[in-house]
Write a structure and sequence with these properties.
The chain has 14 helices and 16 strands. By secondary structure, the chain is of the alpha/beta class. It folds into 2 domains: 190 residues, Aspartate Aminotransferase, domain 1, CATH 3.90.1150.10; 249 residues, Aspartate Aminotransferase, domain 2, CATH 3.40.640.10. It starts with 5 loop residues before the first helix and ends with a helix. The mean pLDDT is 97. The structure holds pyridoxal-5'-phosphate (PLP). The site of pyridoxal-5'-phosphate (PLP) has 14 residues, from α5. Pyridoxal-5'-phosphate binds next to α5.
């Protein structure tokens, strides 16, 4: 266990739970009522994972902050786990969404906004041809289908401890002998993921080459930096090496930039001059209105379109009635061009630099065996002394109870962190005061745990 004094931790947590309950009678009453018609009292099972016994109910939100039904205001560093990375309800997105709501929501016909959105993404990522979905999960599912279709190969490669949404083939891990196995707690897999997937550790080019050399791999679906098991950054040459290997073995290289978009308007792909065959996006590109996207190289687009007949285009397993609808496209076009601008990213990253520096300074001051990793406007501390090189190293440093304490400690001081990580995300609306509120909480929590 990364934190040794479990008795102290349990006592500190119990005190925070008491404070939480005293401050949230309104959320408590609503949760009791919600337990009747909903499993776990929540509309989606993950929302039950908040510490304190029940989630806070949101009354309203704007920019970097939201207010709960008990009248408490929070600085939001969770931002819907990236869905609201642009800040809550940015004016430009809201205006475009409201306009489109009044003009028709979905037609199975294109609107001008789709062209604006696609052209913006093509320019920013250097990947020329785009398609739209409702979620990043769907974008991943679709591009994997295309990859298997055009290569005639059956398997995909992913990193150990990856997360790419609820895509069946990705719920796989490496066991202690280096075999691909079903991920622990994988809920009802259709087939054993060992049949569909080869898992390799992050930052391990030899393992990737061994997998590619089997000749079975259609696509490598990767986050250019892992973000869902804590942040795991690529070592110099890793991403370029994967590109070379993918070309050598005819594997389609897909960058899932749903989270790593935190590095800038063109994600890690543009910032680090990378050349994937495909890029996946989602969550925040529509300011929270459901929207996902995948972009493809000219060559991949040609291989796909040459091999699919128009007559069967709607029954092949790629697409969806609401995908690319007018409302999502209005939200994406406005959000990309008016909110997620290069200037906004500059500001977001500068604030995140301060967050990282402050957290690291407190870690150093109290000799705490933790470290911070930053990826543009996203930063995260983990319970280990050095930056993890692989998903496994990051996972081994996890401590659920310690995380629950830290999250509740933050919440009781008006700060929301994502329930799954010690991660903070900056929106264009965040301010230095928001960051300093976190610094204050973090110092107080570290003192309680270590001083
Ligand atoms: C890297 C990555 N890809 C895809 C997804 C799936 O996003 P969604 O749940 O919106 O489909 C996630 C979700 O956390 C993600 O982190």
């Amino acid at each position: 266990m990364p934190y040794a004094d479990r008795t102290k931790l349990a006592a500190l947590f119990a005190k925070e739970v008491e404070t939480f309950k005293a401050k949230h009678p309104g959320s408590f009453t609503r949760h009791q009522k919600a337990l009747g018609p909903m499993m776990g009292g929540v509309p989606m099972s993950w929302m039950a994972k908040w510490p304190g016994g029940y989630p806070v109910y949101v009354a309203h939100a704007k920019g970097s902050r939201f207010t709960d039904v008990d009248g408490i205001e929070y600085v939001d560093f969770c931002l819907g786990d990236t869905g609201a990375m642009v800040g809550h309800s940015p004016d430009a997105s809201v205006a475009a969404i409201a306009k489109q709501l009044a003009q028709g929501i979905t037609f199975m016909l294109p609107t001008d906004d789709a062209t604006v959105a696609a052209a913006t993404l093509a320019e920013r990522f250097g990947v020329p041809k785009w398609q739209f979905t409702l979620t990043a999960t769907d974008a991943n599912r679709h591009i994997l289908r295309y990859a298997r279709h055009v290569t005639g190969r059956s398997k995909i490669l992913v990193h150990d401890y990856c997360y790419h949404g609820t895509v069946d083939e990705t719920f796989a891990n490496l066991d202690d002998n280096g075999n691909t196995v079903s991920r622990q707690n994988n809920i009802g897999p259709q087939v054993d993921p060992a049949e569909t997937t080869i898992v390799v550790p992050f930052n391990d080019l030899d393992a990737a080459e061994r997998a590619f050399a089997t000749g079975d791999v259609a696509a490598a679906l990767i986050e250019p930096a892992m973000t869902n098991i804590g942040i795991v950054l690529p070592e110099p040459g890793y991403l370029e090496g994967l590109r070379e290997l993918a070309t050598k073995y005819g594997v389609i290289l897909i960058h899932d930039e749903t989270h790593t978009l935190s590095e800038g308007v063109g994600g890690m792909t543009a910032r680090r001059h990378l050349h994937p065959d495909a890029v996946v996006l989602g969550k925040t590109i529509g300011a929270g209105i459901p929207a996902g996207a995948f972009g493809m190289s000219e060559e991949l687009t040609k291989r796909v379109s040459d091999s699919i007949h128009l007559e069967h285009i709607d029954v092949g397993g790629v697409g969806g009635t609401l995908a690319g609808n007018a409302l999502s496209m209005a939200a994406v076009a406005a959000t990309l061009t008016q909110v997620l601008t290069p200037e906004a990213f500059e500001r977001m990253e500068a604030l995140c630099d301060v967050w990282t520096t402050d957290v690291q300074a407190i870690i150093d001051e109290y000799n705490v065996p933790w470290q911070v990793s930053q990826l543009g406007c996203r930063s995260e501390y983990s319970f280990r002394e050095t930056a993890p090189r692989t998903g496994r190293e990051a996972a081994d440093a996890d401590d659920f109870e310690l995380q629950q304490f830290l999250h509740l400690h933050a919440l009781n001081r008006g700060i929301l962190m994502t329930p799954f990580h010690n991660m903070a995300l900056m929106s264009p609306a965040h301010t230095i005061e928001d960051v300093k509120r976190h610094t204050e909480h973090f110092r107080e929590a570290v003192v309680a745990l270590f001083a």
